[in-house]
Amino acid sequence: MIIAIDGPAASGKGNIARQLGGHFGYPHLDTGALYRAVGLAMLQENRNIDDSDAAAKVAENLPLELLDAAEIRTAEVGEAASKVAVHAAVRKALRGFQERFAGQSPGAVLDGRDIGTVICPHADVKLFITATVEIRATRRHKELLARGERIIYARVLADLKVRDQRDATRKEGPLRPADDAFQIDTSDLDIEAAVAAALTFITSQRT
Ligand code: CDP
User: Fold this and answer.
1) Number of the ligand 1 atom closest to the C-alpha atom of 115
2) Distance 114 CA to ligand 1 centre (A)
3) Looking at 138-188, which runs of residues are DSSP E strands?
4) What angle do CA 146, 148, 153 make, to 5 degrees?
5) What is the pLDDT along the chain (207 residues), one digit of tens a residue?
6) Are the C-beta atoms of 206 and 31 separated by less than 8 Å?
7) 205 CA to centre of ligand 1 in angstroms
8) pTM exceeding 0.85
9) What is the sign of the dihedral through the CA atoms of 157, 158, 161 and 163?
10) For ligand 1, atom 1, which residue shows the shortest CA distance?
11) CA-CA distances (angstroms) from residue 146 to 9, 55, 72, 77, 140?
12) For ligand 1, what atom is nearest to the CA of residue 13?
């Protein structure tokens, strides 16, 4: 069973994806980490983030060791990730890795922006996780402070708005719910309630 989870930044999709993976015993891929790794490598190599060819080359030789690196979680790398994610050649280069991950038996959970629409259009379950931008900014601000980053709430809110807009309006793999996605608004839900809503939906689909 493939579970595809999409949604904007800090909507809770990663947390829900991890918990569903644990529940079903499936591996989980945070596809945002792939774009973040490419963004970080571009920053480290002092490359122009808008250089599509350079970014595609990095994506083709994906720096796997960066996927678990704490440095990919900064606000700066999030911004860089969304900029490299605009390039069609980068998205193409990262596609095979995601498709192979999704093809694992007996199942897999992937979260991102275009999983239900582009990477796994035939996923058994598609979820689209949302929350108001203010609530998402509050969550992300807390996370960044906990990681030791010095950043004010207003900056996080402004960055998320710019990133949402960029992610939703790009030509390739824009952030949008698949037609058959089940939407969960986590604005007033804690993680347990959000996972419970997802599980109720998945159970109803499979019976
Ligand atoms: O953690 P957060 O929710 O802030 O974002 P992320 O999932 O780590 O993704 C970082 C950036 O990568 C996003 O803003 C997207 O531009 C891009 N991304 C994408 O284009 N497609 C995906 N499947 C996942 C992430």
Assistant:
1) 23
2) 9
3) 182-185
4) 70
5) 999 999 999 999 999 999 999 999 999 999 999 999 999 999 999 999 999 999 999 999 998 999 999 999 999 999 999 999 999 999 999 999 999 999 999 999 999 999 999 999 999 999 999 999 999 999 999 999 999 999 999 999 999 999 999 999 999 999 999 999 999 999 999 999 999 999 999 999 877
6) no
7) 27
8) yes
9) negative
10) 9
11) 17, 30, 15, 16, 10
12) 3
∠ CA 136-111-56, nearest 5°, is 105
To test the pocket of ligand 1, the residue of 68, 92, 113, 114 to mutate (highest count of ligand atoms within 8 Å of its CB) is: 113
Mutate to test the pocket of ligand 1, among 68, 79, 82, 99 (most ligand atoms within 8 A of CB): 82
Q: Going by CA atoms, what residue is nearest to atom 23 of ligand 1? A: 112
Nearest CA to ligand 1 atom 15: 82
Phi, psi of 30 (to 5 degrees): -85, 95
